[in-house]
Amino acid sequence: MAQEYPADEARPRRRGRKLLVGLIVLLVLVAVLLVIADRVAVGVAERAIADRVSQEVTKQGAQSAEPDVEVGGTPFLTQVLDGRYQRISIKLRDVQASVEGDALRLPVLDVDARNVRASLDTLRTGQGDVVADTVDGTGTISYDSLAALLDRPGLTLGEQGGKLAVTAPVDILGQKLTVSGTADVTVAESGAVALRFNDLDAAGLPNLPLARTLLNNYAKGISVDVPLPDLPFQLAVREVRPLPEGLAVTADAKNVPINSAG
């Protein structure tokens, strides 16, 4: 036979269960509201940073599409109170800048700022600096814009076996030939991209010293230091690597503002 409890004892238990369920529901609602508030705050911060980045790009005489900004790390609001953010990622598309009268284009420039310091007052007023301990940037220079800077009719660039490859029509001793070969690509002390075409040849090249000299002179003519535009956030180029989609540029900086004082 089932044991029966007095009615006055069962009612407090039911009330206790209802109170517990109500408390759990309340906590869930509070958690949801905090998450929503956190995400809203992130969106506001990302839009504000995007506006400041656009201003900085314009100040440096460059152009780009509207930046995409992502503030990493959760929860965001605790980072606001602490004044330190784990990561801010910025993607700039179709970056263009004038280099000696020619336009050098980077289809995408990815910037990753770590350990970013920004006071609550800076975020509230828009005044002051947002400073990152480290900033890393990666971008790709299109081969078409690089070839335009070399200014040789018909010259095309690409990647071959991890090296920068060149193909171009040449006229040597009255013969129209196609020159091809590869180049060494390094970063010069000035920060420019140094191109050194040391291994060029042309099918059908006459077996004459003068023909070889003319080909070597052509190689020297396209072996130049290509100046890069000033990158945002004081980024300094450290490495360049030929990839199928273009010349990959890696840059970094330390302890720099990712926006200027307002």
Question: Could you describe the 3D structure shown?
Answer:
Helix content is 33%, strand content 42%. The protein is an alpha+beta fold and 262 residues long. It has a domain at 145-226. Strands 1, 2, 3, 4, 5, 11 and 12 form a seven-stranded antiparallel beta sheet that branches. A five-stranded antiparallel beta sheet has the order 6-7-8-9-10. The radius of gyration is 30 Å and the shape is elongated. The termini are far apart.
What keyword list fits this structure?
elongated, 262 residues, 12 strands, alpha+beta, seven-stranded antiparallel beta sheet, five-stranded antiparallel beta sheet
In short:
This protein has helices spanning 7-59, 76-82, 120-125, 143-150, 209-221, and strands at 62-63, 68-72, 84-99, 102-117, 131-141, 156-160, 163-172, 175-187, 193-202, 225-226, 236-243, 246-257.
Topology:
Blueprint: H1 7-59, E1 62-63, E2 68-72, H2 76-82, E3 84-99, E4 102-117, H3 120-125, E5 131-141, H4 143-150, E6 156-160, E7 163-172, E8 175-187, E9 193-202, H5 209-221, E10 225-226, E11 236-243, E12 246-257
Biggest sheet overview: 7 strands, antiparallel
Report the total helices: 5
**What radius of gyration results from the CA coordinates?**
30 Å
As residue ranges, the low-confidence spans are: none
Name the beta content range.
35-45%
Distance between the termini: 80 Å
Task: List the secondary-structure elements in sequence, H or E.
Answer: HEEHEEHEHEEEEHEEE
Kindly state the percentage of residues in helix.
Answer: 25-40%
